[in-house]
Design brief:
single chain, about 150 residues, alpha/beta, Rossmann fold, seven-stranded mixed beta sheet, 5 helices, about 45% helix, binds flavin mononucleotide
Length: about 150
Amino acid sequence: MPRLLVVHHTPSPALQAVLEAVKEGIALVEEVEPVLRPALSAGAADVLAADGVLLGTPANIGYMSGALKHFFDTVYYPCLDATAGLPFGVWVHGNDDTAGALASVARITGALRWKQAAAPLDLTGAPGPADLEACRELAATVAVGL
Ligand SMILES: Cc1cc2nc3c(=O)[nH]c(=O)nc-3n(C[C@H](O)[C@H](O)[C@H](O)COP(=O)(O)O)c2cc1C
């Protein structure tokens, strides 16, 4: 069964709600195994065993969170050759400006030559029903492509 790795930094109730919606979206797709890893505990072995990746982070000072950056610092060279073409999706949540965070993720996934499998999801403020539905859709879109 294809494995969808979810690497996330989830430091608040709003982001926990986002993560729950992402899990629901994956569960809509049969025959995909979700593998959830907080970004500070995910490693190269998780990526190498995955058929696709979902990345989730708050915007922090105009960049991805330090936790997700640590993940990329850890996996970059071990995965550089082996994971070219890996399908991925990303959500970013912030108070008002996620542009820098989204750009930082786009830059490093581009360097890894991962393949964007769904449009990046840009969330600001308290996640409402439409935001949570967009999270389900992001997750289901990446999952169904595996
Ligand atoms: C140190 C720090 C830096 C932050 N920088 C940004 C930022 O650059 N852009 C933004 O939109 N939100 C920023 N935020 C807000 C977080 O993205 C937000 O707190 C997080 O997504 C969780 O959402 P919540 O506080 O509504 O639970 C920052 C928060 C902290 C603690």
